[in-house]
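Ticket opened by: R.M.
Priority: normal
Category: complex prediction / small molecule

The reporter submitted a protein together with flavin-adenine dinucleotide and asked that the result be attached to this ticket for the collaborator who will pick it up next week. Submitted input follows.
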Amino acid sequence: MIRAYRDKGKAHQWDIYLASLFPLLTQSLIDWNFTTTNEGNTAQYHDIDGINLPAGKVLGGSSSLHHFYHVRGVSNDYESWANASQDESWNWDGLLPYFIKSETLEDPLINSTEYGQYHGSDGPTKLTRELNDATLRYLQAFEEIGKNIEEDINIGSSYGFSQPMFTISNSIRQSSAESYLSPIKEQSNFHVMKNTEVIKILFDDDNNAIGVEAVTSSGETIKLYANNEVIVSAGTFNTPKLLMLSGIGPKDTLESLDIDVISDLPVGQNLQDHMAVVVAHQMEETDAVAAAADPGKFPVPTFVGYSAVDSTQTYPDYISLNLICKNIPSIVAQLCSVVIPLKKEVCEEIITAATERELLFSVLTKSRPWSVGNVSINSTSYLAAPVIETCYLTDERDLEENAAYLEDFVQVAKSSVFQGVGATTVSVTLPSCANLTVGSTDYWKCYAQSMMIRFAQLGSVTLCVVAPTPWKTLEFATCTKSSRYLAFSSKSRSSVK
Ligand SMILES: Cc1cc2nc3c(=O)[nH]c(=O)nc-3n(C[C@H](O)[C@H](O)[C@H](O)COP(=O)(O)OP(=O)(O)OC[C@H]3O[C@@H](n4cnc5c(N)ncnc54)[C@H](O)[C@@H]3O)c2cc1C
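Result attached by the on-call engineer:
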């Protein structure tokens, strides 16, 4: 196994392990620090020219910097995989045994109920919950507006609002490295080369992959040959980059860079990356002083919601992650200025709303985006970052549906729980939406476009197939723009052709 690790610099072990420190990990030495190309369609209120696309550059990959939520998804998601692959083993029932096999749920409450049958007791990934009473009135509020409340949303068949499971055990992050590699690290037939980056896949005369070329931490280029097979799992952005550098990818791209074409395939096309929209609710005044957080726990109480606008629907349309910040503006500041990061003036308004108040900080993501982007390369150097066009919201349906989800979600402000404490939906100043009526569908479309962020929690996919057909026959959309709501005044932004 070969894994790119940190760039030069000191490894700070605890930032990876401790849940409370997750906001420090994006844009750090263990992040590949990719950004999108500037597509001029979204993210006008981001503090950088583009959008950060964090991806773990460390053992365990992104699971070593991710946000701990253990959400399996619902059976409908897997049904669509089974339909697409015409292989029933990809549906929920086919995958459930593997979910169970992969985990040890350390939650006596769930394990002692009917839900226990959906969870494992001796798998490598240890899971816990951090039940917190602060979530209860929020769950009640969402129930009041018609949402289901679930003890366990990881059983496939139900959806609603729930306190989540975390990939945390004994105060330690359960990354895939911690779960799968640590237990076998002394095994004699297991070898890991850290700080080593694969730069090319090697092929024999019949185009069989036989090994890789890699650059070690000392800068030496080496060739490694496989006894059986080469498995490439370098993540959504680096896998297509590596395939293209190795001669597998769109012919036009490869030829433009004088790369010998081994196989002309649409590698890097059909990127499906999730975006989310930030929305905050200001709750009651409080002079509570936040207790010093346990560094091994998630920094604030949280709950997740799987929702559908049509309450009779049997599967959700959108997911919300909700953080309860009780007079703790420093966490809000970290989220909006480091993890996202939004422009200073937008962030300041949200931080102010969180000062001496309880604030519900939510991010809403559409489970199945229509917009598709692509990953490509513009250099033969392995040091060059892949060119990533996420194309968020370029399909008009995404804009309409995100607006509908926002309208649906903020109904919670009408619940007696919210009304009882004089709660309001935080209306940040967005000059580009200034001439729209707050709360109208057009306003929410504009808001979604303005307050969008990347949502890495659901992961992303792109085509990395090496099989010759049927992918060749598919047509892939390019990044065409949807209608604009934003006034592009402060910066001129280039457009994607
Ligand atoms: C900020 C963030 C928060 C997230 N939060 C959650 C969450 O709360 N819950 C959840 O379930 N999921 C979450 N995710 C998503 C989840 O982490 C990813 O879906 C998952 O890690 C993807 O696994 P992967 O193996 O496909 O790729 P990765 O995890 O990206 O692993 C790829 C590995 O390959 C290495 N690599 C890349 N190129 C090379 C090369 N050329 N040579 C050698 N090694 C290379 C990388 O360094 C990395 O170690 C989050 C992701 C991010 C980025």
